[in-house]
């Protein structure tokens, strides 16, 4: 049976639209995939490690073929544990609200923690990067309250899905499906929410 990890980037709890749509997805997924597992990684729960000076130095040590020591070793071990938690699943659901035309900084922090050599990627001087997180599937719930498809730049720009989906592809996850909820300031929230929930259930059934 498959194992699905829901990685949530919103800190708003019960008031989060992205989390609510993700719950619609996971409820349908469990109902239509008997025996499957769904776990939740809340990026705001305090378990996501920092990736500061010690971790950055450790990464460059590993790049150079060395072994991190002391404080660097501890920081590197925390990054490795986070990656191993992530990599142990074969299905991913990400709930991603738009913040300032992009993604919440905690999601960027997660990406920076797990995107390590010989884990998420390798790189060759002639052929460039190669993603190592292969054979997996991802679904992403994108939400925004102001920006929406077809609106002008005065309402913001979409660096949310463009950035995140490029990272997924770079990491090796080619099978990506999206659920979008962009009611905008003048649209119909009820209509957009209904469509998003229907889309979430549709993807979950065959995920």
UniProtKB/TrEMBL annotation:
<comment type="function">
    <text>Quinone reductase that provides resistance to thiol-specific stress caused by electrophilic quinones.</text>
</comment>
<dbReference type="Pfam" id="PF02525">
    <property type="entry name" value="Flavodoxin_2"/>
</dbReference>
<dbReference type="InterPro" id="IPR003680">
    <property type="entry name" value="Flavodoxin_fold"/>
</dbReference>
<dbReference type="GO" id="GO:0016655">
    <property type="term" value="F:oxidoreductase activity, acting on NAD(P)H, quinone or similar compound as acceptor"/>
</dbReference>
<dbReference type="GO" id="GO:0010181">
    <property type="term" value="F:FMN binding"/>
</dbReference>
<comment type="function">
    <text>Also exhibits azoreductase activity. Catalyzes the reductive cleavage of the azo bond in aromatic azo compounds to the corresponding amines.</text>
</comment>
<dbReference type="InterPro" id="IPR029039">
    <property type="entry name" value="Flavoprotein-like_sf"/>
</dbReference>
<comment type="similarity">
    <text>Belongs to the azoreductase type 1 family.</text>
</comment>
<feature type="binding site">
    <location>
        <begin position="16"/>
        <end position="18"/>
    </location>
    <ligand>
        <name>FMN</name>
    </ligand>
</feature>
<dbReference type="GO" id="GO:0009055">
    <property type="term" value="F:electron transfer activity"/>
</dbReference>
<dbReference type="InterPro" id="IPR050104">
    <property type="entry name" value="FMN-dep_NADH:Q_OxRdtase_AzoR1"/>
</dbReference>
<keyword id="KW-0560">Oxidoreductase</keyword>
<keyword id="KW-0520">NAD</keyword>
<keyword id="KW-0288">FMN</keyword>
<keyword id="KW-0285">Flavoprotein</keyword>
<feature type="domain" description="Flavodoxin-like fold">
    <location>
        <begin position="3"/>
        <end position="202"/>
    </location>
</feature>
<protein>
    <recommendedName>
        <fullName>FMN dependent NADH:quinone oxidoreductase</fullName>
        <ecNumber>1.6.5.-</ecNumber>
        <ecNumber>1.7.1.17</ecNumber>
    </recommendedName>
</protein>
<feature type="binding site">
    <location>
        <position position="10"/>
    </location>
    <ligand>
        <name>FMN</name>
    </ligand>
</feature>
<comment type="subunit">
    <text>Homodimer.</text>
</comment>
<dbReference type="InterPro" id="IPR023048">
    <property type="entry name" value="NADH:quinone_OxRdtase_FMN_depd"/>
</dbReference>
<dbReference type="GO" id="GO:0016652">
    <property type="term" value="F:oxidoreductase activity, acting on NAD(P)H as acceptor"/>
</dbReference>
């Amino acid at each position: 049976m498959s194992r699905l990890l829901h990685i949530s980037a919103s800190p708003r709890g019960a008031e989060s639209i992205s989390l609510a749509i993700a719950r619609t997805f996971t409820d349908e997924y469990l109902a239509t995939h008997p025996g499957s597992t769904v776990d939740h990684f809340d990026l705001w729960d305090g378990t996501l490690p920092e990736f500061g000076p010690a971790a950055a130095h450790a990464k460059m040590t590993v790049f150079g073929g060395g072994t991190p020591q002391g404080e660097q070793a501890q920081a590197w071990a925390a990054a490795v544990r986070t990656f191993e938690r992530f990599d142990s699943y074969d299905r991913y659901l990400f709930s991603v609200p738009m913040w300032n035309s992009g993604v919440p900084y905690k999601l960027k922090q997660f990406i920076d923690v797990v995107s390590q050599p010989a884990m998420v990627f390798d790189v060759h001087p002639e052929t460039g990067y190669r993603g190592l997180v292969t054979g997996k599937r991802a679904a992403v719930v994108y939400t925004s309250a102001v920006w929406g498809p077809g609106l002008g730049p005065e309402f913001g720009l979409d660096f949310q899905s463009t950035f995140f989906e490029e990272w997924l592809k770079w990491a090796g996850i080619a099978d990506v499906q999206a659920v979008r909820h962009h009611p905008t300031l003048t649209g119909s929230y009820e209509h957009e929410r209904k469509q998003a929930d229907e889309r979430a259930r549709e993807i979950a059934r065959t995920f």
